[in-house]
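Section 5.1 Outputs to date
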Amino acid sequence: APDENLDPSPNPNPNPNPNPNPNPNPTTERLYLLDTYLFEADAAALSVEALEPNPKDDATHAVILDRTVFHAQGGGQPADLGTITADGAVFEVTGVRSAGDAVHHFGSFRGGDGDAPAAFAAGAAVHLSVDEVKRVAHARCHSAGHALDVAVARIFGEDWVAGKGYHFLDGPYVEYIGKLAPEMKETIVDTLNEKIAEVLSEDIPTEVLYLSPEEAKAACGTPDADFSHITAPTIRVVTVAGGGTCPCGGTHVRSTAEVGGVTLEP
């Protein structure tokens, strides 16, 4: 489903960087866009800021890095979880959000003695470790949503258009806009289950391209798309199961065979 789709969860802290940042325009290289299966990396901490208390979230700090393997929540896909460590300090990442060119890692320092766990500061060399099981589960779920777009297209062609997509594990779904003939109402779920099983069994590789705005419009079949909010010179375009090409900032499996079984429910 397109990256502009439903993102239901609010920012875990609406003021992620309340204190002055030594670097007013930090930039984080997003390694997760290059390799879904990169679970660890080394980085440098650009800023470590204490957060104002938030009754809706337990995070105490926001960390910005020069590079990250943590997927930032967005496009209907949840954030990666894991740890950032340095010199005995362990920062448990419980939320990740993009803000401009930077990626904010929300969480808390844990461990150590007493009430003051060890912490690291801006400039520290850190090691990142993503929860592998959750990362792969999120990638499978997101790719399944894109594969469903292809299954729907094989049945309805362009008569059904993908709307909102939700790729969280607690109840993923994709909404479609289109008409359904009365005689199909009783069989549509079974028909879709058969078709998506067919798509997944074909072991179709996932393709990721970085295109200019005009190239992206052509590849996605959306000549009127507005990409003015994207500041990067190129747009990341993803094709899963050989179709449903669209701009996407999510993590995906290598091919449809890695999605596993998918069962649709009414």
